[in-house]
Amino acid sequence: MGSAKNTGKQAAAKRNLLVVAEFRHHLRAFLRFSEVAAEEAGLRAQQYQLLQVVGAAPGDEPPTIAYVANRLFLRHNSAVELVDRTEQQGLLEREVDANDHRKILLRLTRRGEEVLASLVILHMDELKKWGPEMIDVLRRVTGEANGAATQKPVSRN
Q1: How far is residue 139's CA from residue 142's CA, in Å, rounded to a whole number?
Q2: Residue 50 in contact with residue 68, Cβ under 8 Å?
Q3: Secondary structure of 21-59 in the HEC alphabet?
Q4: Which pick of 28, 58, 125, 137 has the fewest CB atoms within 10 Å?
Q5: Backbone phi and psi for residue 44, each to the nearest 5 degrees, phi listed first
Q6: Quick one: CA torsion of 8, 9, 10, 14, rounded to 10 degrees?
């Protein structure tokens, strides 16, 4: 009876692995699309992500380098280098905070807004195409977490 129990655990572990691997594949496929789209627009993927973070920052005050570093999971000095490269391309500008001269505020330039807007349109179109399939994969992942997943693997070429 112990071997039947182990076989059941192994089968469940294998199902979990298949579902998680399928989810990771879909995430990676979308990220790869994003990397290629950014490159075709003359950016590195992280620069596109930086433009997203700055453009989508909540509130009335522009984001700081510390905010960007946190949102992109970067060290402060790495965020500074990324901002430097993006600013050199004319996509971003810095401004010293009038109330706290230690804070550097970031703003998109008009060119940065245009590049970001065009990339967002491409990404939204791609998400609309892949959306139903990605939702299906997410349902299988959450079903597996609740012990009720299906095994139907979906392959995206």
Answers
A1: 5
A2: yes
A3: HHHHHHHHHHHHHHHHHHHHCCCCHHHHHHHHHHHCCCC
A4: 58
A5: -85, 155
A6: 100
Please state whether the predicted TM-score (pTM) of the whole model is above 0.85. no
CA distance linking residue 58 with residue 130, whole number of Å: 28
Give the Cβ contact number of residue 1 at 10 Å: 5
Give the phi and the psi of residue 104 in degrees, each rounded to 5. Answer: -110, 120
H helices present in the chain, as ranges: 2-40, 45-55, 65-72, 76-88, 110-145
With a pLDDT cut of 90, the percent of the chain lying above it is 70
Q: What is the pLDDT of residue 59?
A: 84
Per-residue burial over 30-46, b if 16 or more Cβ lie within 10 Å, else e, is: beebbeebbeeeebeeb
Vertex 147 angle, CA 145 and 149, to 5°: 80
DSSP 8-state code for residue 60: S
Closest CA to 156 of 120, 132, 121, 123: 132
Longest pairwise C-alpha distance within the chain: 73
Contacts of 137 by beta carbon, 8 Å cutoff, 6+ apart: 19, 22, 23, 26, 154
